[in-house]
Amino acid sequence: MDEYLNRLKSGALKLYALEQELPPDEAVKVRRTFIERETRTSLESVGSYTIPIIDAVKKNCENMIGTVQVPIGVAGPLTVNGSYAKGQYYIPLATTEGALVASVNRGCNAITQSGGAEVRVLHDGMTRAPVFSAVSIIEAADAALWVESHFNDLKNKAEETTRHGVLNGAMTAVVGTNLFVRLEFDTKDAMGMNMVTIASQNIADLIVQNTGVRLVSLSGNFCTDKKPAAINMILGRGRSVTAGVFLGSTLVKDVMKTDIDSFIEVNTRKNLIGSARAGSLGMNAHAANIIAALFIACGQDPAHTVEGSLTITTADKQEDGVYVAVTIPALPVGTVGGGTGLATQKECLQLLGVAGGGDPPGSNAKTFAEIVAAAVLAGEISLIGAQSAQHLARAHRELGRGEGRVKI
Predict the structure, then answer these.
(1) Residue range of the domain that includes 43
(2) Both 199 and 334 in a single domain?
(3) Distance from C-alpha of 408 to C-alpha of 391, rounded to nearest angstrom
(4) What are the CA-CA distances from residue 320 to residues 265, 271, 335 (Å)?
(5) pTM surpassing 0.85?
(6) Is 228 contained in some domain?
(7) Cα–Cα distance between 196 and 205 in angstroms, integer?
(8) 227 lies in some domain
(9) If you placed Cys at 365, which of 112, 189, 300, 346 could pair as Cys (CB 3.0 to 4.6 Å)?
(10) What is the pLDDT of residues 348-406, one digit of tens each?
(11) Residue 151, domain member (yes or no)
(12) Cα separation, 86 vs 80, whole angstroms
């Protein structure tokens, strides 16, 4: 090891080049030791891991020095009555926030006692939007017309790059001399960003060749990826999914410790009016909490949690109860690719019965999206109930600070 450490110290060997000379585990160990010595910091816990890392260093993480472990709890069972997800599920949630798993668990209990969450996938399409530069607004407008009238050519060009992805749509927007083309793909069981990026390059080249505009960037932020954006809220991105359940007044009283009118008032004044007054794009209690915990556990890109935060939660008073629903316009999820192949994340997907490609293709990712939506619904129900019953501070005091256990 000393030879490699000395070469790293002298600059003769770069950190990123260790895997070219050593097996992955040894390369990671040498790199970690070098960082420990340079920073005078012990990374013993970071260096303690059980997952096979040969794929991780190739596909998931450069300059790897180890892993960070996040506690995983389970909530459930949660009954889901979806088009794809049908049955009871235990929900793996990776989090360091005390009270989160317990809160979702209470929501799962309420939903399951009510017969299960109704869930539907409303739309499916991953996007990428190149931006082009024109010399005038005339050239930009003409290029937009060319794109709109040559969809089949774009589709055929895109599908030269993938066996699985299918171009479903192309929307243009002209801003002065800028042309944005929002391309939407069916990516089957993959979340699909790599797939659509490669296919979009082919399409962009075709547009340049036929219109004279110049490609500025393969991503022009009209996609919109990993940022809160109204376009995703309106048109959707990834899987657009909704989940709802009817809660009877007796269940709300016995399980949620509140009443229907109070529950609805909290949702209206907090989630809807409060969010509107704040200019929030998402109108929910804490949808991102559940999405982030599921994403970390199941190998999704946690940065896409920001898109999931666009969730809208509604509560409609009905005879002797309330119908609570969540609508998640943008939920980029997949069951193949990315971090889904890492050992611990794959086990969590297996726990839900959605690891790998589905039969037919795309069915596993849609099943997973429906499970996520049902889990978000559980989290929303529980937190709204806790706030309407004035229990929020007590739950965080007793669970978040580790001072005991409260049944929620």
Answers:
(1) 2-60
(2) no
(3) 9
(4) 16, 23, 40
(5) yes
(6) no
(7) 14
(8) no
(9) 189
(10) 999 999 999 999 999 999 999 999 999 999 999 999 999 999 865 555 556 555 544 44
(11) yes
(12) 5
